[in-house]
From TrEMBL:
Functional summary from the UniProt entry: Methyltransferase required for the conversion of 2-polyprenyl-6-methoxy-1,4-benzoquinol (DDMQH2) to 2-polyprenyl-3-methyl-6-methoxy-1,4-benzoquinol (DMQH2).
Membrane topology summary: Peripheral membrane protein
EC nos: 2.1.1.201
Record family assignment: Belongs to the class I-like SAM-binding methyltransferase superfamily. MenG/UbiE family.
Protein's recorded name: 2-methoxy-6-polyprenyl-1,4-benzoquinol methylase, mitochondrial
Pathway: Cofactor biosynthesis; ubiquinone biosynthesis
Catalysed reaction equations from the record: a 2-methoxy-6-(all-trans-polyprenyl)benzene-1,4-diol + S-adenosyl-L-methionine = a 5-methoxy-2-methyl-3-(all-trans-polyprenyl)benzene-1,4-diol + S-adenosyl-L-homocysteine + H(+)
Gene Ontology molecular functions: 2-methoxy-6-polyprenyl-1,4-benzoquinol methyltransferase activity
Origin species: Naematelia encephala
The keyword Mitochondrion belongs to this UniProt entry's keyword annotation: yes
Subcellular location: Mitochondrion inner membrane
Part of the whole protein covered: 57 to 333 of 333
Binding residues annotated for S-adenosyl-L-methionine, in chain numbering: 83, 109, 139-140
Assembly, per entry: Component of a multi-subunit COQ enzyme complex, composed of at least COQ3, COQ4, COQ5, COQ6, COQ7 and COQ9.
One of the record's GO cellular component terms: extrinsic component of mitochondrial inner membrane
């Protein structure tokens, strides 16, 4: 097929990704839910708790001692943020767990269709028309100019980095805009570690997903492309090494507590985290 990844010259990848996400933008949530059987929601919840285990104490609201000096908000950048899945979870967690609304998320995405869907979605939330959430059209590999060096507290990218032409370029941009001590969280499809489960998963993704794409979105090629892009993405330790090469401090090159990554559902999805020194 013309979406067959290996036939696409590298420089056309962004155009291709653009058309893939335009064709899926409106059915994006439905597709995510049906293809992952709703499990992507749990992955995203876990991911957001792990990148935002707490907020700086200065940001916690204390109703008994309202501060008079304005506080600098906690600034998050959710790159490839699409329809706002991660951004809204970040804001909800800050508000529900830490009673904090001094937190802002800017969503950057390459696809206007996804940004439009995101705006529609935010219009139904209490963050609508507040400085807490904003949308910017832009590329992860060279972030929009108004995002300054050393300005971001938390950088997230969920299920977006595998579509980018240059992983090192994305990571070095992330490093540049983060404050020293700022954190990066990358959520992406990983490599399934258990050999039997891996076989079942491959079977599922190469046959079932493009068929579902055809039935639900009338488009099997885009979904074929998504499956192939998952296959091509580096393994968990390889990606952790790329983060280190970009300058991030990570845990040890292994999975789990104290490690550079956490696998979800046996590595179908993986969260990598790092800190800018
Ligand atoms: N983060 C959302 C989520 O987890 O549901 C959306 C993920 S969606 C699978 C991938 C997103 O990455 C799309 O919205 C696409 O437009 C965006 N994207 C792809 N390449 C990009 C790039 N180079 N820069 C910024 N966004 C990009």
């Amino acid at each position: 097929t013309h979406f067959g990844f290996k036939e696409v010259p590298l420089e056309d990848k962004e155009t291709l990704v653009g058309s893939v996400f335009s064709s899926v933008a409106s059915s994006y949530d439905l597709m995510n839910d049906s293809m992952s059987l709703g499990i992507h929601r749990l992955w995203k919840d876990s991911f957001v708790s792990s990148v935002l285990p707490r907020l700086p104490a200065s940001l916690h609201q204390n109703p008994n001692s309202p501060t008079t000096t304005p506080r600098a908000p906690f600034k998050c950048l959710d790159v490839a943020g699409g329809t706002g899945d991660i951004a809204l979870r970040i804001l909800d967690r800050a508000r529900e767990k830490f009673a904090c609304r001094d937190i802002e998320v800017e969503i950057v995405d390459l696809n206007q269709g996804m940004l439009d869907e995101g705006r529609k979605r935010v219009a139904k939330t209490l963050y609508y028309n507040t400085p807490q959430i904003s949308f910017t059209h832009g590329n992860a590999q060279s972030l929009p100019a108004h995002i300054e060096d050393n300005s971001i507290d938390l950088y997230t990218i969920a299920f977006g980095i595998r579509n980018c032409t240059s992983l090192p370029a994305v990571l070095s941009e992330a490093y540049r805009v983060l404050k020293p001590g700022g954190k990066i969280g990358v959520l992406e499809f990983g490599k399934v570690t258990n050999p039997l489960f891996r076989q079942i998963y491959r079977q599922y993704s190469f046959s079932f997903i493009p068929i579902m794409g055809k039935i639900l979105a009338g488009d099997s090629e885009s979904y074929q492309y998504l499956v192939e892009s998952i296959e091509r993405f580096p393994s968990q330790p390889e990606f952790a090494q790329l983060m280190r090469d970009a300058g991030f401090q990570t845990g040890q090159l292994r999975e789990g507590k104290g490690g550079a990554w956490t696998d979800y559902t046996n590595g179908i999805a993986t969260a990598w985290t790092g800190v800018k020194a």
